[in-house]
Structure formats: C-alpha cells, structure tokens
Design goal:
By secondary structure, the protein is mainly beta. Helix content is about 0%, strand content about 50%. The chain has one domain (about 1-95): EutN/Ccml (OB fold (Dihydrolipoamide Acetyltransferase, E2P)). A hairpin with a 2-residue loop joins strand 6 (about 85) and strand 7 (about 90-95). It is elongated, with a radius of gyration of 14 Å.
Length: about 100
C-alpha cells in the first residue's frame, strides 16, 4: 500500500460498463515523511474519501481485491482514509 493525498476528482461520462458507479479521485503521492512526491495516480474510491484527505491506496492486481473493484479493470484503488501515522516515534500526520 502507498500513501497519498486526494487533490481532485475525475469525471468520465463514457467508460467501460463495468466501471459504472465508481468514483475516481486524483491522488498526489506522499513520502513516509508526509512530503509530496513527484507522481499522481487516478484511483477508484472504495471507502468514500474526499478532496484533502490522506489515504492508503494500492495499485496493480491488489487494486482489484476490494468488494467495490472485484472483477473491474482498476489499476489503483483507495482502500483506507488515514487518521494518523507515526515513524520512529515521531508523529508525521494527524487528521484534523
């Protein structure tokens, strides 16, 4: 799993039929020190995340392991909304 911050939404009115009903979000990759990384990913939302939230997301075949994305052509999925994380005894993030 990877860390990211939701920075936007994506709307596709024409898409593969199996993708109907999925919400897509733009995720900015984060480092373990809560710093923005270089990349972005478009991920299907399996947990009801929103813009501004920090999330855990998975890519590749792991992205198809949630109830919402099972047997759907997804390469990235948001699997959790982060409340807090700590590294080496130092708090790196806490949700407001």
């Amino acid at each position: 799993m990877l860390l990211g911050k939701i920075v936007g939404t994506l709307v596709a009115t024409r898409k593969e039929a199996s993708l109907l009903g999925l919400k897509f979000l733009v995720v900015r990759c984060l480092t373990i020190d809560n710093e923005e990384d270089a990349g972005y990913v478009i991920a299907a939302d399996a947990v009801g995340a929103g813009v501004g939230e920090v999330v855990l997301y998975a890519t590749g075949s792991s992205a198809r392991q949630t109830v919402r994305t099972d047997k759907r052509p997804c390469d990235a999925v948001i699997m959790a909304i982060v409340d807090t994380w700590e590294v080496d005894g130092l708090e790196k993030y806490r949700k407001n």
